[in-house]
Amino acid sequence: MNDLGGRSIMSYANAAGPRAFDNHSKEHLASFPKLSCPVQAKAMPITAGPVAGKIIDLNLKIFENDSVQEQYTHLVDGEGNTYINDTGNYNILIKSIANVTIFNYSFVRYFDYEGPMLRGVNYSALNLTSFELALKIPYDNMMHMLYVKHENITIFSTLLNFCNQDGVKHI
């Protein structure tokens, strides 16, 4: 049973509701450091600037009608890529809570085959309706909001909140 009086989310698939994590499951999930904010970050003020060894692993699917599907946005250990702004009519912007631009990358969206090609094969009949955008962005503590813009019109936005705020005391 969970705090709501129903079955645990970790129970069988068609268990009666209300569904929520039970305390045992919350405690187990709280034991994974990547699912929670570091204790130091909660106890000390966050300082501005890049965080060495941390990147935002971003994967989006952009469709011809300018709809965007977020595949995933994770804060992970790794080395970020260096992005040179192309001249394009699409932008990835990351802004601080004070609306200061921290990251800006322009790109051209295209719907074309990018895989291996054999001589003499015509690939023009392929119907590609989406564009996969995968970026490894160096992380900065002040990053707050991510925007995808087309011709300066926001077509997607998401809050960059990578902390687990489940109320469970993390060790």
Describe this structure in words.
The chain is mostly beta strands. The chain folds into two domains: 1-36, no CATH class; 45-159, Sandwich (Immunoglobulin-like), CATH 2.60.40. 8% of the residues lie in helices and 36% in strands.
State the low-pLDDT regions, or none. 39-46
**DSSP helix count?**
2
Rg on CA atoms, Å? 21 Å
How many DSSP E strands? 7
What is the total domain count?
Answer: 2
Q: Any idea what the CATH architecture of the largest domain is?
A: Sandwich
Overall mean pLDDT stands at: 77
String of helices and strands: HHEEEEEEE
Strand order within the widest beta sheet: 4-3-6-7
CATH class of the largest domain: Mainly Beta
Distance between the termini: 24 Å
Q: What class, by secondary structure content?
A: mainly beta
**Shape, please?**
extended
Major sheet summary line: 4 strands, antiparallel
Strand content: 35-45%
CATH topology type of the largest domain: Immunoglobulin-like
User: Percent range for helical residues?
Assistant: under 10%
Jot down its keywords:
single chain; 171 residues; mainly beta; Immunoglobulin-like; 2 domains; 4-stranded antiparallel beta sheet; 3-stranded antiparallel beta sheet; extended
Compact summary:
This protein has 2 helices and 7 strands; from the N terminus they run H-H-E-E-E-E-E-E-E.
Annotate the secondary structure layout.
Blueprint lengths: L22 H8 L8 H5 L6 E14 L4 E10 L12 E6 L5 E7 L22 E11 L4 E6 L2 E7 L12
Antiparallel strand pairs: 1-2, 1-5, 3-4, 3-6, 6-7
